Amino acid sequence: MYIKQTIEQLAPYVPGIQPQMDGRVIKINANENPYPPSPRVKEILSEFDYGQLRYYPDATSQRLRTLIGTHFNLSSGHVFCGNGSDEIIAYLFQICLEEGDSIATPYPTYTLYKTIADIHRVHTEYVPTRDDFSIDIEALINTGAKGIFIANPNAQTGLLLPLAEIEYLLQNYEGLVVIDEAYIDFAPATASAYELVARYPNLVVLRTFSKSHSLCGIRVGFCLAAPMLVDALDKCRDSYNVSHLSQLMAAAAFEDQLYLQKTIKQVVATRERVRETLISLGFEVLPSQANFLLCKPQHHTAGEIYEFLKSKQIYVRYFDAPRLSDQLRISVGTDDEMDVLLEQLIEFL
Ligand code: PMP
Fold first, then answer.
1. DSSP E strands: which ranges in the chain?
2. Does ligand 1 have an atom closer than 6 angstroms to the CB of 155?
3. CA torsion through residues 235, 240, 241, 247, sign
4. Which of 120, 143, 172, 176 would bridge with 93, disulfide CB 3.0–4.6 Å?
5. What confidence tens digit (pLDDT) does each residue in 35-44 have?
């Protein structure tokens, strides 16, 4: 009655199970970082004068924008901060896409692009990845869509699209190009497209504090883009879209690049060790450049393994969809958590 029919018909975004966390639960189903955020975040919280909360936060997250801009050798006018990168994805639809337009995105990928497209009555053209899950840039361009969304490394697979292919896309396509680098910090440093932002006005590089900075809980993301796009994002954002504490904590984490590099190195080392062990146990495992591993068992169904692990309070993500039939996605936890997981798998297999 009160709700638009298009909204009633929407399939909402479904997150992984969020169990009550106690000492025994191993939650490796949402690509969260197993390590705490930088100790500087704790310091900021303990020093914080709670009386400040009666004021609205800085509406433009200016200090954070300046810090980020300087780090990436761009002006703060190239940076926009959001309440999670998910919010920025929604704003991009508001500023760049009209009802009835299309976006193109590889399949499989982060499902939220389609969820938000549906909200805005924008059609999603899924372009299947090749048999090896690599992304077909030419096919994406050939859709003629008004915008192209690529997660790099790609969600669900963890595979990295080489920078040369992103540049090829930008040279041959004039629509909106969103490169979602939520997981890029777990890939080699040269993989990011951020340097192309200064040269291509249609490029948006999306980042988040949720993964490598271990700050899912504060909901801060940012994007790097031409000032014209940033200005447009500023026109339609919530009046105070990033909370005071979130701005402070994100800035503290961002300034601690040493801690960031240390935890990334640890996650990557664990990822490689676990991948090799899973392969030796008979799993097919894609060579992920992210903080998770997509894998398929040989002698059991992934569904059986998922249920078994769940009964042991180990939560991984299970997929059973086209191209992702009967697969497990395992986020990289601490070495201890991964040892428990591997022991349980050995017992089950
Ligand atoms: N992009 C991708 C590819 C993701 O997997 C995620 C996390 N699920 C996000 C964006 C969202 O990140 P945030 O927490 O900043 O909204």
1. 26-27, 79-82, 102-107, 123-128, 147-151, 176-180, 203-208, 221-225, 284-285, 292-296, 314-315, 317-321, 324-331
2. yes
3. positive
4. 120
5. 999 999 999 9
Pick the residue whose CA is nearest to atom 8 on ligand 1.
Answer: 30
From first CA to last CA, the distance across the chain in angstroms is 52
Give me ligand 1 centre to Cα 332, in Å.
16
Contacts with 310 (C-beta within 8 Å, 6 or more apart), sequence order: none
Q: pLDDT-derived band of residue 4, with 50, 70 and 90 as boundaries? A: confident
Whether pLDDT at 12 is above 90 = no
CB-based contact 54:342 (threshold 8 Å):
no
CA dihedral 256, 64, 267, 184 (to 10 degrees): -130
pLDDT of 313 > 90? The answer is yes
Ligand 1 contacts CB of residue 180 (under 6 A)? yes
User: What pLDDT is stored for residue 147 in this prediction?
Assistant: 98
Q: Is the pLDDT of residue 267 over 80?
A: yes
pLDDT band of residue 15 (cuts 50, 70, 90) is: confident
Ligand 1: centre distance to CA 201 (Å): 23
The answer to whether 270 and 290 are in contact (CB under 8 A) is: no
Pocket test residue of 183, 208, 291 for ligand 1, highest count of atoms within 8 A of CB: 208
pTM: 0.97
| Phi-psi map region of 117: left, alpha, beta (phi>0 left; psi -120 to 50 alpha) | alpha
Tokens 């190009």 -> residue: 177
